[in-house]
Design brief:
This protein has helices spanning 3-36, 64-77, 127-136, 150-179, 184-206; strands at residues 45-50, 83-84, 88-90, 95-102, 105-112, 117-124. It is an alpha+beta fold.
């Protein structure tokens, strides 16, 4: 086994593992809230009405990212930043409901197109809710408009990097274990036990 390859793999395994450990810890800890947490229904909220807004032309007819880009002009006027979760249009009342999320804050903008007014409702989220949001973001829901906030896209890149580096750590860990003869037997037992446990859980859930 080339000594240089072993040393390079060992060092990368160590230092890249240290680099992504905060990201891996966040994903791991947030699972507890996803499994057991509940959104508080009595959380304190702040509500304010804003008048004389400049409503972009065509926002009622636009769809997808086009409507999101037009709605961004509304966000700038009401001093709200974050990821536009979705946009619901109530045609009979000419209203747009725009939920906006970011770590620590959930905001709902209720825009009356005809009156050019908006009611902005903000709710502070808990630390556990924030971890849950980061765990699920950006996610597969409303994929056509997902990533419309720069920091959501940045978090997506960080999450992808965490996955790729975790795959590298897994493969390099198996390689480093394989070249240490004294650890092969114990490692093989644990590897087989892990595979059997995973297979058993998948079978029990799918059956």
């Amino acid at each position: 086994m080339p000594k240089g390859l072993y040393i390079w793999t060992r060092d990368l395994h160590l230092y890249l593992g240290l680099f992504i450990s905060p990201f891996a810890l966040l994903f791991a800890v947030s699972v507890f809230f996803l499994n057991h947490g509940r959104t508080p229904v009595d959380a304190a909220t702040a509500r304010v009405a804003i008048h004389d807004l400049r409503v972009p032309l065509g926002i009622e007819e636009a769809q997808g990212m086009e409507r999101v880009h037009l709605a961004a002009a509304i966000l700038a006027q009401v001093d709200v930043t974050g990821e536009i979760n979705f946009i619901r249009y109530v045609s009979k009342e000419r209203r747009l409901i725009i939920p906006v999320v970011k770590p620590g804050v959930e905001t709902v903008i209720d825009l009356s197109v005809e009156a050019r007014t908006a009611t902005v409702t903000r709710r502070r989220t808990t630390t556990w809710e924030t971890l849950s949001y980061l765990h699920k973001s950006p996610g597969p829901h409303n994929a056509a408009i997902r990533g419309n906030w720069f920091w959501t896209r940045a978090w997506r890149w960080a999450a992808d990097a965490t996955v790729y580096l975790t795959l590298f750590l897994s493969v390099s860990g198996i390689y480093l274990w394989a070249v240490l003869r004294s650890e092969r037997k114990a490692g093989l037992i644990l590897l087989v036990a892990g595979i059997v446990s995973l297979g058993g859980i998948i079978y029990a859930v799918a059956a």
